[in-house]
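> run fold Amidase domain-containing protein
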Amino acid sequence: MAISLSRLLLVLLLAGSAAAAFELEEATIDSIHLAFTLDPGGSLSTADRADAARVATVPGALPPLHGVPVLLKDNIAAAGALNATAGSLAMVGSRPARDAGVVERLRRAGAVILGTASLSEWCNFRGPGIPAGWSPRGGQGKNPYMPSVMPCASSSGSAIAEATNSVAVTIGTETDGSIMCPSSFNSVVGIKPTVGLTSRAGIIIISPRMDTVGPISRTVSDAVHVLEAIVGYDPRDAEATRLASKYIPEGGYKQFLSIDGLRGKRLGILRKDFFSFPSGSVQEKVFNQHFDVMR
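> ok
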C-alpha cells in the first residue's frame, strides 16, 4: 500500500441485532450499511459524519455508498493529506488542490476515502522490464494467493487490497489490461468501463484515448454499485464524458443485477493459448473443478 493501512485501523461497530450477521472479513456494500465505520486516520471525520447521518436520516434515504470505505489507486487525486504519486518518489509530498472527478462522485455517494493503493510506477510506463506491481514508493506488490506469481499490471495494489479484505471496494485505472489482469490474477472482480463513462480529470494517465477508471471488488454486485456511483458527465473531461454519457442506461446498472443472470447462458472457453494445460497436471484438475462449478 502506498499509505500504511495498518495505521488506518478500520473498526466496524455493529448496530443492534445486525451484529450477529455481520462478517468483517467478507463485508460487502450492503452489509456495511448495517454498521458504523471508524478509523483514526484522515477519514475519521468523514466516517463520523456518515455515522451521524445514518442516525438522523430516514432509512433508505442515505446515498448509495454511505459509509463504505474505498481505496484509490495512487494515481488518483484526493484533496487533502493524500498524495497522488503514481508510485514515484518524485511526487511524494504533493498535495492535490482538489478531488479527481471520480472522487467527487464517490464522496457525493457517501463513500469514505481511506487512502491509496500501490501500483506499478507511472502505471507500468516507467520503462521496459520493470516488474508488474513494483514502485519505489510501495515496493513489490505480492499476489496474496501465491506470492511467487506476479500480481499483474498497474492496478495490482487495488486488486491485492481487495483480495486481502483490506477495504470494502477499490478503484483502479486501465490503459490496456490494468484493471482486468490484476482482478483476474488476484481472484477479484474488475470492471473496465467504456472510455468516457468515467472521468479522468485529476488522474495521472497514459493515453486520453484509452485510459478509463473502474471499480475492483470482491463481488459483481459491489462492482456495479461503485460503477453506478462514478459514471457520468464531468466538465473537466468534457469531450469524452459527454459522448459516453448517452450510453448510460436509463435507470442505471443495478437494475441488471440478477442472481439468475447466467441461467440459460452458454460460455465459450478459449482453450488454445489461454486455458490449455498439460494432461494430468494440477492446473488442469483445478481448472476443470472450477469449470464444473460454473456449469
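Confidence is low (pLDDT under 50) at residues 1-20.
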